[in-house]
Amino acid sequence: MLEVDSLVMDFGGFRAVDRCSLKVEEGTITGLIGPNGAGKTTLFNIIAGALFPTSGHVRYRGEDITGLASDRRFHKGLVRTFQIPHEFHRLTVLENLMMVPPQQAGESLFANWFQWRRVKGVEAQTERRAHETLRFLELSHLAQERAGNLSGGQKKLLELGRTMMTDAKLVLLDEPAAGVNRTLLRKLEEKIATLHRERGYTFILIEHDMEMIEKLCDPVICMAEGRVLVEGDFAHVRSDPRVLEAYLGETTGEAA
Ligand SMILES: Nc1ncnc2c1ncn2[C@@H]1O[C@H](COP(=O)(O)OP(=O)(O)OP(=O)(O)O)[C@@H](O)[C@H]1O
Q1: Would strands 2-11 and 29-33 be described as parallel, antiparallel, or unpaired?
Q2: Statement: residue 186 has pLDDT above 80
Q3: pLDDT level of residue 253 (50, 70, 90 thresholds)
Q4: What confidence score (pLDDT) does residue 105 get?
Q5: Which of 117, 163, 203, 224 fits as disulfide partner to 229, beta carbons 3.0 to 4.6 Å?
Q6: Where does a domain end: 166, 193, 221?
Q7: Span 59-83, pLDDT tens digits
């Protein structure tokens, strides 16, 4: 589904991604782990189109998308979550969901003036979908709450919900477990697993929480110094001495 080929990302004289190549199969939840500074977020930014690489290629469903703008990727179902937009805090939870669908009919002046019946229809459909999403996430009771008042975990659930408002195919999750309490973490894991199993989402998940990686991800890819170090199932990656060494070379032994 996704193929990253010999990607290089230089920031001035510093090489953050160093000839990185990997493949993500459709229908998987692929875990991306590695010590701080391994290049995971930079790689995500390149896949999502927030950064353009110095060299190398990104292919998505057979198409070379290396130079494609992020909104065009979004329309193709390649969605990155947990980047919280400015409007997030001021809007209600329901509004946050309703503003997601691309090319909302109501946003076009032409549509507003001349096609109001259609606009109303689309809005009603969007609202229904938003309520369904809230039910799925068990957040219906917070529909009218300002998103800024949500807990860290509820915000992560809402961000997951925002992907459900699109026709997402490949979802990039950037440290979903960060700042989430244990109870909501279990719920978040359960929702990710359900979206994967029942709705066919493919996920790539950057995470330092090894419990979450172990529960959800197969395969797991460990990056270090800008490239893939080891790839395989969790047990294989975890027991590889190079992985341990990469982590121990940093401040903690998170992979252990
Ligand atoms: N815009 C930038 N300018 C200069 N250096 C950058 C920039 N973005 C990232 N880097 C550097 O590139 C390296 C890789 O960073 P990146 O954030 O991709 O790592 P990471 O694996 O996601 O780390 P973490 O797990 O801590 O989030 C780091 O040394 C970082 O300081």
Answers
A1: unpaired
A2: yes
A3: very low
A4: 40
A5: 224
A6: 166
A7: 999 999 999 998 888 888 898 876 4
Domain check: are 132 and 10 in the same one? Answer: no
Residue 191 and residue 236 in one domain: yes
CATH classification at residue 48? 3.40.50.300
Residue 253 Cα to ligand 1 middle (Å): 19
Q: Whose CA is nearest to atom 4 of ligand 1?
A: 11
108 lines ligand 1 (CB under 6 A): no
**In terms of domains, do 72 and 173 share one?**
yes
197 with 250, same domain?
yes
Q: What is the total count of domains within the chain?
A: 2
Q: What is the mean pLDDT of the chain?
A: 86
Select from 11, 175, 223 the residue to mutate for testing ligand 1; criterion: most ligand atoms less than 8 Å from CB: 11
Which structural domain range is residue 119 located in?
87-166
SS (H, E, C) 41-82: HHHHHHHHCCCCCCEEEEEECCEECCCCCHHHHHHCCEEECC
What pLDDT score was predicted for residue 84? 44
d(CA 174, CA 55): 23
Q: Is residue 82 one of the residues assigned to a domain? A: no
How far the first Cα of the chain sits from its last, in Å, is 30
CB 157 within 8 A of CB 84: no
Tell me the pLDDT tens digit for each residue of 204-241.
Answer: 999 999 999 999 999 999 999 999 999 999 999 999 99
**Last residue of some domain: 166, 195, 215?**
166
